[in-house]
Design a protein that fits this description.
Blueprint (H helix, E strand, L loop, with lengths): L3 H5 L1 E7 L5 H17 L6 E7 L10 H5 L9 H4 L8 H6 L2 E4 L2 H10 L7 E3 H9 L10 H15 L21 H23 L1
Parallel strand pairs: 1-2, 1-3, 3-4
Helix pairs in contact: 2-9, 7-9
């Protein structure tokens, strides 16, 4: 019999400032990686992103879009994206909220203080996911995702970053292509770790 977690699916929300670079890229690349790893189960996942000072209605920024090219995601796939302003309702409805920096995490928690247990920076959550033993998690991807949030919460403070900077992804907006590439690499590495943990 399917669990309540399995029946309701899993909602993941990414947060940055403008919602046209970091969180936009994270949403699109994670959807792609999930589809690759969990197949038809991807329909049970609802991915979204928003900005604390969003450029509402804007498409993904061109430099961030170019970073999707290695996966051939820079065409029609990216065209569907439109930036959104972060709201308390979005946070409340999400099963996990992953932010670009600790400052974005604080902003999300100002809007929705009760979301503390499910709000992490993206790199923090990936680090905690990497510390979880696969056999500790249930069988299905959705159940694993819910259980991963609970395990990450229990590991918070025990699996620390070497430096506070290791929990942040620098804003590449208005900066060089190299900085965009660095941000995209950090996001891809983190999201891949999370997806691989969910998909095992």
């Amino acid at each position: 019999m399917a669990s309540d977690d399995d029946l309701r699916g899993f909602r993941l929300l990414f947060v940055c400032t403008g919602n046209v670079c970091r969180s936009a890229f994270a949403e699109l690349i994670t959807a792609h990686l999930l589809a690759e790893r969990v197949g038809s189960e991807v329909r049970r996942f609802q991915l979204g992103s928003a900005g604390t000072q969003a450029m509402v209605g804007e498409p993904i920024q061109p430099d961030a879009r170019r970073e999707l090219a290695p996966w051939k995601l820079d065409g029609a796939y990216a065209d569907r994206f439109s930036a959104r302003q972060l709201t308390a309702a979005m946070i409340e409805q999400a099963d996990v909220v992953l932010t670009a920096t600790p400052e974005h995490r604080a902003a999300a928690l100002t809007l929705c203080p009760q979301a503390l247990a499910k709000t992490f920076t993206l790199r923090e959550f990936a680090r905690l996911a990497a510390a979880v033993e696969p056999q500790e998690l249930p069988a299905t991807p959705v159940e694993r995702a819910h259980a991963l949030v609970a395990r990450a919460r229990s590991l918070r403070g025990k699996v620390r970053a070497a430096s506070p900077a290791d929990d942040a992804i620098v804003d590449p907006m208005g900066r060089s292509a190299k900085v965009h590439r660095q941000a995209a690499t950090l996001i891809t590495d983190a999201t891949r770790t999370i997806v691989e943990t969910i998909a095992l």
